[in-house]
Amino acid sequence: MDLTYSDYLHVEPLLSLQHPRSEPEEHDELLFIVVHQAYELWFKLLLHELDKVKGDFVAGRTYPAISTFKRLRTVLKVAVEQVDIVETLTPMSFNSFRDRLDKASGFQSGQFREMEFLLGYKRADMLKYQPEGTPAHARLQARLREPSIVDAFYTFLGHHGVAVPGHLTARDLTQPTQPDPEIEEGLFRLYKSQPDLEILFELMTDFDEGLQEWRYRHIKLVERTIGSKRGTGGSLGVEFLKRSLFHPVFPDLWAIRHRL
Question: Where do the coiled-coil regions begin and end (predicted)?
Answer without folding.
Answer: none
